[in-house]
Amino acid sequence: MRIYINIRILFCVMLLCILYGCGSMVGLPSSKEKSTIGEITPYTTELRSLPLPKEKIVIGVYKFRDQTGQYKPAENGNNWSTAVPQGTTTILIKALEDSRWFVPIERENIANLLNERQIIRSTRQEYLKDADKNSNQGLPPLLYAGILLEGGVISYDSNIMTGGIGARYFGIGASSQYRQDRITIYLRAVSTLNGEILKTVYVSKTILSTSVNGSFFRYVDTERLLEAEVGMTQNEPIQLAVTDAIEKAVKSLVIEGIRDKIWGKSVDSTVNYQRIIDEYNTEHANNNNRLVGNKYPNDDRQNLSIFGNVETQQVKDDYVNPATNIGGKLGIKYFLSKNFNLEVNANYFKIQNDKIMSRSFFVTEVNLEFLLIPQYKLTPFVYGGVATMFSQDKTRYKAQFGGGLEYLVQKNIGLRLSSQYDMGFSDDWEDFASGKRNDQAIRFGLGINFYIGKN
């Protein structure tokens, strides 16, 4: 009995060691971390690499804050924590410093600054009475801003895109999920001379959250259950997302100011700014086609295509033991619009029941196909139509419907994964009629689509 108990204890210790090792492999923290200098975003480097101005611009920021009033989403109950950091003014000032185009001055807490300057004056007057009256006891004047920056985080949208994938078989399973949120900021430059709004820029940034999970759940005996789980969740920090968006807005403001001649004598005439202006204009032009979720539609699918499929087929007829066979399909598609196309194809189709019968058909099909989102590289599609089946004894007819996915691996080449269900108009595909159901078949295909013609 003692030996049995010791074996169980040893097994538990080994299991804990294995789980600890798995935790280290999937990146789970196993020890405390010391403080580090804050991370930088991709736009931090781009800001610091901007060409230097001839003269820096004195700029003031009174308030650049969260204007959404959005709280963090919570699955259960209420969450009174704000979704957006409340220190966005500080983030903006840091971005202005990194750009090296501006001299930010303190305006967010100017009351504290003025109060401290008053304390300095009072202290000097009180304790320097016997000093030389001709000595300069005054403070230098405060800098004043030629331009004010206004705006803020004006939108926080939760769950603009969600999805996942998973599978489970005999108690062993794995799954992965993702979620995208989105923040939007506006930044505008205002002239203190006459109040004119010189420039307004608008930037959005998605925030990604992902999770990966695996589980094992199985009875190893009638009264013993083995269960194990492992998983990892990663959430993009909101603060870094806000910083990235603000730095992008500052960079856009600098480049648009150079392009539209807003910064005046600060622009150095000896420096060639054309490269960064051209890059920005190209990005702006490409962005005109961007949709929610950072997806860029395209018109690579032309109005005519030739395709070929390799298919597996299995009949559902009146005999037992249907066999799986390999067939093929060749055809042409003509697009009536971006979403709809008319398809004509010819294919080889074989039905077989082991040790009972086998018959081959030459089939011509006419289908109407609908592409759900043809402007994307990956799009689902569905189709349906009628067909004629030719064999040695006589001609038969059927209807079919199916669907699948198409992905453009190159501009004019698409890979297709599809499934099709054939419904016969008669019950004599194998020359034997039994029951009330007509003969049917199911197919799974992998194909390639070559697009030709005009967009």
Automatic annotation (TrEMBL):
Protein name: Curli production assembly protein CsgG
Keyword Transmembrane included in the entry's annotation: no
Leader sequence residues: none
Organism: Chryseobacterium formosense
Cellular component GO terms, alphabetical: outer membrane-bounded periplasmic space
Keywords annotated in UniProt: Cell membrane, Lipoprotein, Membrane, Palmitate, Signal
InterPro entries hit by this protein: Curli_assmbl/transp-comp_CsgG (IPR005534), OMP/PagP_B-barrel (IPR011250)
